[in-house]
Write a structure and sequence with these properties.
The chain is 45% helix and 18% strand. The chain is α+β, with helices and mostly antiparallel strands. Helix 5 (82-106) packs across helix 10, helix 10 packs across helix 12 (223-233) and helix 11 crosses helix 12 (223-233).
């Protein structure tokens, strides 16, 4: 068996084919979807659904709490399902607190003041209230707690990591916060070992072939925990060594061969890219063009063609059209250009606007 990293990842990440029809199913499958760019993360979900969906449909599911958004790993915002938020936080939150420790000290946020902040938030949000960041800043002020700018952000992140608050429904373009206990139905509490096994399993099923280092990067777990997680589930996976790298992937996967050429406009922080420490497998064209894997342009919206990065793209939304500007790093054939045009049209349908290509 020859290890075809790109084809298997396209398949496992639901980019080459998908049977899923609901946004929450995509989030459940991937475990977590990085979402500090809310608009980009919605598109990451949208293009992994079988039937045509729209941005507004994902907004609806988000507002109804079928998809939640919270600080979860590394630390940054992720989409997560209500069923997974508690067990995932139990596993990942201690690591994020450790990463945040320096900022906690720099902002003079000791445990006592952070817990006072949590008590203030809990009292303010009880009874199904969903308040914006600025409204919560006023709550802190009335409670005699200095919480503005970065300090407010870390108060809220701490409360998210402690499983106290998560996203509420959006109010216009503003995000709100709600109490987890009121937003998320109670489920059986998982042990840490169960959570570790499930996170490991979900990562390698959906992002494999991937390495131990890829998993530690994505999850933020310690190397010891990541190794333990793999040991717990390794009988469910195939291990293959390629060069000096050891890859793990599901043994039941039979990837389809995507029609070639096929293009995808991926949003910034898409899991096809951000889910791996080593992104060289999708960087062959970029390498030939003299672009390094850590180039900032490769973290922005990217165009992939048959799984390989061939450039970047930007959108400008007008009243009645979305303008899509391409920044290609290689010359495309006529067929490849048609594939990219098809991808831009798909994005326009997602937004409910005609797409106009600007090269």
């Amino acid at each position: 068996m020859t290890l075809d990293i790109v084809r298997q990842r396209l398949h496992n990440q639901l980019l080459s084919q998908t049977k899923l029809t609901r946004p929450s199913e995509v989030v459940e499958w991937l475990g977590a979807v990085q979402s500090q760019d809310y608009a980009g993360a919605k598109w990451a979900i949208g293009q992994r659904l079988k039937d045509a969906t729209t941005e507004s449909a994902i907004d609806k599911d988000f507002n109804e709490g079928k998809i939640l958004r919270t600080h979860l790993m590394r630390p940054t915002w992720h989409f997560v399902t209500p069923e997974a938020i508690r067990w995932m936080l139990r596993l990942t939150a201690p690591r994020v607190h450790a990463v945040n420790a320096y900022q906690y000290r720099a902002l003079e946020l000791d445990k006592a003041i952070l817990q006072k902040g949590n008590a203030t938030l809990e009292k303010a949000l009880q009874g199904g209230k969903q308040w914006t960041r600025s409204e919560l800043a006023s709550v802190f002020q009335k409670a005699g707690i200095v919480a503005d700018g970065l300090r407010l952000g870390y108060f809220l992140m701490y409360a998210e990591l402690e499983g106290l608050i998560c996203s509420g429904a959006r109010r216009g373009k503003q995000f709100t916060y709600a109490l987890v206990e009121e937003r998320v139905p109670q489920v059986r509490a998982w042990t840490r070992e169960e959570a570790l096994a499930e996170l490991t399993r979900r990562y390698f099923v959906t992002r494999g072939p991937a390495t131990l280092h890829d998993f530690t990067w994505w999850s933020g777990l310690t190397m010891a925990d990541a190794k333990k997680g793999i040991e717990m589930v390794k009988t469910e996976f195939v291990n293959e060594v390629l060069g000096d790298q050891s890859y793990w992937f599901a043994n039941s996967v039979t990837p389809v061969i995507e029609k070639s050429p096929t293009a995808h406009l991926l949003p910034n922080y898409d899991e096809y890219f951000i889910g791996f420490k080593d992104r060289s497998a999708i960087g062959n064209v970029a390498k030939q063009a003299g672009i390094k894997g850590d180039d900032p342009s490769l973290i922005a919206h990217i165009i992939i063609l048959d799984g390989q990065i061939v450039g970047g793209w930007r959108r400008t939304i007008k009243k009645d059209v979305v303008l899509i500007k391409l920044n290609l790093i290689t010359k495309l054939t006529k067929a490849e250009n048609q594939a990219v045009i098809a991808a831009t049209e798909q994005y326009g349908k997602f937004l409910g606007l005609p797409a106009e290509l600007v090269i």
